[in-house]
């Protein structure tokens, strides 16, 4: 009998997160103030984040304890299973062994609650009554709604208007968990009203929604803001994925040669890979691959530069691979990968050649998703499907070379709320997008007056 | 640390299904031919079902081996977790311990693949190339699509037209797994064409879809028909749920005093409860509760009688609790519970007072679903929410009586494809339905010329 799921008992769940800052050969460079362009200190961030999270953001401690109240909620779905995709291996005819960490088991259906629960907890500890955030397709918004609900914190989600109207089911999910969801641009903030005055029919953007959520938090005493990716502490909360995977590999006496994750802001990729990068940094021969869409090729084509974290220029300036803050990604269905920048930690590791990057087109990504669904059953989210495409490429390469590789990828979320994308695929309405060279010129224009990172 | 999930290793997954026919004090009474009204034999069923399933249908063997090829697919998601709902207990303030078996972990999101995979396997073994079925909201159709895909069998799903148009995502799911889905009534069968000739705008019904699927199978040599509930062998395939649960309770040294499941055709209820009914029949003091909607109160208000399994009178006549084959259930959102009849085995056990039945209104059921989501995180399907409502009632009764009961319920499926129902609930568009007494008179009229069961 071949084992399909490698499970961990709850008592074996890791009790600490892994902070890669302790091991990076070159640290993440300073975050700068959006106006002064000088390095920011904890106090600059205090209006937006609770102090414990700010301290985690700048910590160099390798291990940070996971409070028991967070663990208790993690246990509703964690440890998540490590799955052996034997049927997928067979259909590819590869000698490679393919494993995936299945993060779709969380109530919100993705890895996002790993940090949402932690963030809600630290806010609660500091007496925060209300948290604001933005959401595009809704995966992050629903994770934060779930988390706030557990800690009895009010949650206000600014949801990009086009998604609010087109994806009512993620919205309903957030409401079920008690969040209040408003279409952005809204008339509830200055930023929103300004946009609406210019264009009453604006369908919104993630950049606008961020501005609304940040303004709301900054102008209400009892309110903080929460971000679902990019920041160091967010990535760190996700490392429970890779830490569990290591224990699971130990159980079956295996270890990955290749670790793969899709990247938008970088959090699920960091979650699965950072604990393995520890081994790579300490001499182990592992390849770590970040997979992005050709429509938003931040690592593969964007320069490493200081740029705004948001589109409007209100958020801090961070050193990262970026397509420029004015970049509007084409409307691919992997909404979670449509971000102009990349987590500074992921960007630095890429710069230091500790990780590789690959970019794939939308159609080949959906081909991969359907092949996977038809062999393993589970329907991947379009974001996850990018990782699967890379797995196919690497598994076929192993076949060609006749070598038995062990591949691990992060199955960041299921596609139950993305079926309209599958619909579009089957009815041949999906197209590929390649970024014209002019977009790279525009990106360089965006960053030309910024300080230069090392 | 309180344990949340009680897991089983794959090697501990039961290797046999439990056939309650071996232990029922009174057996299920004979199935009759829809035209001759005489008992049917295996040969009468052979055009529709493979012989192995027909033999299972009439078997009295207590244990039936699960072939390794079926187990291998079960292992993609089974054993499913047994979860302790501690947070839910706390919010109810009950001394009762509440456990649930989480069947939403299957790729199709419900318990349905437990039988779909078995049925596809036995069809494959007998050389069947193509399987037809009907589906309403799509839960059964997607489970069978998934199963046929694994065994490389063509799958044709007749989907009630109103759902086909209103629930495109379940349809996309079936297509992703390679099934062909057609809106019923269709122009592809005589039955469909007949209905369309009378009413080109017919929005369809489960009864019509069954007729189309049955006709398609009966008129194609390489094609069989598959049903997702009601029949003995279908219920038996689901007993893996309860058998796993028993092993999981053993692991934590507990055993349920009350076992609860929602009932439409009866399969998920049978799956969780039959293995525990074995203990009850052999003297153990357990209550077993079947929960139905007040809008379709088959057990609580329908007579026990011989009636057609379908709405049109083409399907075999079975002895069961029924609201009459002409009954059209009100449009409640728990589509899987909108069936005029009840599995003969469940009906006989109810007649023999081995199980109880409760009926609840739609609004209190959604209240229960939201309370559950906000404490345990997972969003239940509207069908599952009926079981949850009963759990609340029983847990509060235990609180009142001050006794510590152990309650087990079957979490038959998640609600990711039912968010429009939650939407309707939050926007106050849901209503309750009570069956007027005239409907019971109509039911009695439906069955008045039928033979009488003992």
Q: How are the secondary structure elements laid out?
A:
Two copies of one chain form a homodimer.
Chain A: E1 5-6, E2 16-18, H1 42-45, H2 51-58, E3 63-65, H3 68-74, E4 82-84, H4 86-92, E5 97-102, H5 113-125, E6 130-135, H6 139-150, E7 154-160, H7 161-166, H8 168-176, E8 180-184, H9 190-198, H10 206-218, E9 223-225, H11 232-237, H12 240-252, E10 258-262, H13 267-281, E11 287-293, H14 298-301, E12 304-308, E13 317-321, H15 344-351, E14 356-360, H16 362-376, H17 382-401, E15 406-411, H18 419-426, H19 437-446
Parallel strand pairs in A: 5-15, 6-7, 6-9, 7-8, 10-11, 10-15, 11-14
Antiparallel strand pairs in A: 1-4, 2-3, 4-5, 12-13
Helix pairs in contact in A: 3-5, 4-16, 5-6, 6-8, 9-10, 12-13, 16-17
């Amino acid at each position: 009998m071949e084992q399909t799921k490698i499970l961990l008992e709850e008592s074996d769940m890791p009790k600490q997160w892994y902070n890669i800052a302790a091991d990076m050969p070159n640290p993440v460079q300073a975050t700068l103030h959006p106006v002064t362009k000088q390095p920011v200190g904890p106090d600059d961030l205090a209006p937006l984040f609770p102090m414990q999270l700010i301290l985690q953001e700048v910590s160099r401690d390798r291990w940070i304890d996971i409070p028991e109240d967070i663990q208790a909620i993690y246990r509703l779905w964690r440890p998540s299973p490590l799955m052996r995709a034997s049927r997928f291996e067979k259909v590819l005819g590869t000698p490679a062994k393919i494993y995936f960490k299945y993060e779709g088991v969380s109530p919100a259906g993705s890895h996002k609650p790993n940090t949402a629960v932690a963030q809600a907890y630290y806010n609660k500890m500091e007496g925060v009554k209300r948290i604001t955030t933005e959401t595009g397709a809704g995966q992050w918004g629903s994770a934060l709604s779930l988390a706030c609900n557990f800690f009895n914190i009010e949650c206000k989600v600014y949801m990009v208007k086009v998604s609010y109207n087109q994806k009512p089911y993620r919205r309903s999910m957030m409401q079920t968990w008690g969040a209040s969801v408003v279409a952005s641009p809204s008339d509830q903030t200055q930023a929103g009203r300004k946009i609406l005055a210019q264009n009453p029919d604006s369908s919104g953007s993630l950049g606008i929604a961020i501005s609304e959520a940040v303004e709301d938090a900054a102008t209400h005493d009892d309110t903080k803001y929460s971000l679902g990716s990019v920041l160091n502490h967010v990535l760190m909360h996700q490392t429970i994925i890779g830490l569990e995977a290591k224990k699971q590999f130990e159980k079956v006496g295996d270890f990955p040669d290749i670790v793969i994750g899709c990247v938008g802001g970088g959090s699920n990729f960091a979650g699965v890979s950072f604990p393995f990068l520890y081994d790579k940094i300490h001499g182990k021969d592992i390849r770590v691959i970040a997979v992005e869409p050709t429509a938003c090729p931040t690592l593969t084509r964007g320069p490493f530069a200081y740029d705004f974290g948001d589109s409007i220029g209100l958020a801090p300036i961070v050193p990262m691979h970026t397509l420029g803050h004015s970049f509007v990604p084409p409307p691919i269905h992997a909404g979670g990968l449509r971000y102009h920048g990349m987590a500074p930690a992921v960007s630095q590791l890429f710069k230091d050649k500790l990780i590789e990057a690959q970019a794939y087109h939308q159609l080949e990504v959906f081909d991969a998703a359907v092949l996977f669904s038809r062999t393993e059953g589970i329907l991947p989210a379009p974001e996850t499907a990018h990782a699967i495409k890379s797995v196919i490429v690497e598994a076929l390469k192993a076949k060609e070379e006749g070598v038995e590789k062990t591949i691990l990828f992060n199955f960041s979320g299921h596609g139950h709320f993305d079926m309209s994308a599958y619909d579009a695929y089957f009815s041949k309405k999906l197209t590929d997008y390649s970024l014209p060279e002019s977009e790279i010129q525009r990106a360089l224009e965006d960053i030309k007056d910024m300080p230069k990172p090392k």
